Each structure stands twice: as C-alpha cells, then as structure tokens.
Amino acid sequence: MAGGQTELAAERAVGALQRIHDEVDRAVRTPPGLIADLLTALVGEGHVLLEDVPGVGKTALARSLARAVGVDFSRIQCTPDLLPGDITGVEVFDQRDHQFRFRPGPIFTNLLLVDEANRASPKTQAALLEAMQERQVTADGTSHPIAAPFMVIATQNPIEFEGTFPLPEAQLDRFAMLLSLGYPSREDEARLLAEHAAGDPVAAIAPVADVEELRSAIDLARELHVEAAVNDYAVGIISRTRDDPRLSLGASPRAGVVMMRLARARALLAGRAYVTPEDVARVAPRVLAHRVVPSADARAAGAAAADVVVDIVARTPLPL
Fold first, then answer.
1. Contacts of 293 (CB under 8 A, 6+ apart)
2. Can you give the pLDDT at residue 278?
3. pLDDT at position 70, please?
4. Which of 208, 155, 201, 148 lies closest to 178 in space, CA to CA?
C-alpha cells in the first residue's frame, strides 16, 4: 500500500475506533482508559479476562462493544455441567445423506462472551484453548477455522470459590489482558441510575463501524514500525520479571509477543505510525499481572502481582 493510501487508511481506522469508543462510553460507566484498553486488545488480536465482583457491568461492556462494532456476538453462561461440545460444536448425523456433519457451536463468532468462566469444569475450560490460540476448532480430526476478527471476553468473580474451578496458568496465559471495572464513582452511579430508569442503554447502541474497518485497523497495527531500542526495552521488562525475587514465576516469551502486539495497537489508537516506550509501559501491567506469580514471601508481605509488575516497569530504564 502506497504511503498516501496507508495514511488515509490509518486515519479512517483511528476515526472508526474513536466512534466505537464514544458509543460504548455512552452506555457503560467505566474507569478512565478501560474502554481504550479493551479496544487495544481487540485491535491487537488479544483476548480479555474481566475479573470483578457481580453487577459492575462486565456483561454490559462486552455487549456494548459488540453492538458498536457491528460484529457477530455470542454469549456462553458457564456452569459446572457445561460440556466442551456446548462451546465448540459437535458432529451430528444427517439422516438425509447418512453422513456426520459438524454443527458449529457459539464459539464461531466474532466476539464471544464467556460469562463466569471459572464455573466451567477444567475439561470445558480447556475447550477454549485451541480456539483462543489457533483461531480454529478441531473436531474428529478436522480443523474448522474461526473467521477474523475473533475475540474472547471472559468474566470471573474473584470473591466466590464454592463450585468454581480456578483458571490454570496455561489458560490465563491465553488472555492478553486482565482488566477490572471496579465500583463507579458517586457521580457515575447517579447517572447510571437515571439512564437505566429510561431503559437499557446498551439496547440503544447503534453500529458505528463494521467488520471491514476493524480488519483494516488490525492489519495496520500489525505493520506499525518498532525500533530495535523499543523491543529491547520490552525484553528488559520481561527479563526483570524472571529475575525479581518477589516473583516465583516470570513472564513467558509469549507474554512479550502479546505485549508488543498490544503496544502496536495502542500506538494506532493514538494515531501514530510508530511505537514508543510509553506504549509498552502502558500495556505492560495489564499484559503481565496475570501471567506472573508472587513468591510466598511477597504474598506474606501483601504484595500483589500487579504492584510488582508496575514497580518493575518503573525501574526499567527507558531507551535513550
């Protein structure tokens, strides 16, 4: 693509993403920057784990994003008796031609909301792994691709443990970001009550972009220029998570790949054709906090993984 065409495509992509941001912001009250983080994951081809208490708007946020982008949306309510085939699909016998045919499950969509993921059994949780990593589902030896864009937004409640199955590290590593909404401010909650008195704000959201605009943004983000010094800065952060005594498990190489994908997406959202160290520093805590494990001493001292990662990012020298 020629330089002028690339600039025009980038301008259109940034405009579409801004419209999506503003439309979602009209319906859901979120902390500053959270919708931008969600769009960063979407453009960076990553999945998101929303961990928060019930009733703060996790499901509404996912529905709002799907409606604003104008993509196919599916929702799975996880329960202990949910089977892998309920997510991926199953082979069914067609009596008309006496052949087995694959009936796709709800995972064959653009945006999939997996509600209360930690209520599903480990076997069912594992059914998501291939789709989240490879963008395909294999059934009876046949691979069925999932059309792009494809994003999983999973939610889990961190305060209930009875009847739940904590996501293992291998599953957590498939999520690009761990995000939390928290309780709204008094002003936002007052506006929320007024808005819901007039109806469901999510139902009023109209598509302000389309799948092609989103695909264009994803392609542009992949091509953004990254200086070697910025890559070295990212490697420095990853390396420090492995050497820090406060962490018993550091970040994997996959974490570094995801971090740079999201840094590119963040740069595009900012309207830039290049990635800065600040882009990396911004996404690093959201990418790494759920991938590292605090040591026993750190946990005893009350140090959370996110706090350790933020400190590591702060102490990693910026490239000159």
1. 169, 247, 248, 249, 305
2. 96
3. 86
4. 155
Q: For residue 196, what pLDDT band results from cuts at 50, 70 and 90? A: confident
The token pair at 247 is 């962490």
SS3 74: strand
DSSP at 310: H
For 297, counting Cβ atoms within 10 Å of its Cβ (0-12 exposed, 13-18 middle, 19+ buried), the class is exposed
All domains of the chain in start order, with CATH: 3-215 (3.40.50.300), 224-315 (1.10.8.80)
Please list, residue by residue across 99-133, b when 16 or more beta carbons sit within 10 angstroms of its beta carbon and e when fewer do: eeebeebbbbbbbbbbbbbbbbbeebbebbebbbe
Tell me which residue has tokens 């974490």.
255
Distance CA 220, CA 43 (A): 9
As a whole number, mean pLDDT of residues 298-318 equals 93
Beta strands 99-104; 89-94: pairing state? antiparallel
Whether the CB-CB separation of 141 and 90 falls below 8 Å is answered with no
This prediction's pTM: 0.89
Here the tokens at position 239 are 């390396």
Could you give the CA distance from residue 308 to residue 314 in angstroms, rounded to a whole number?
10
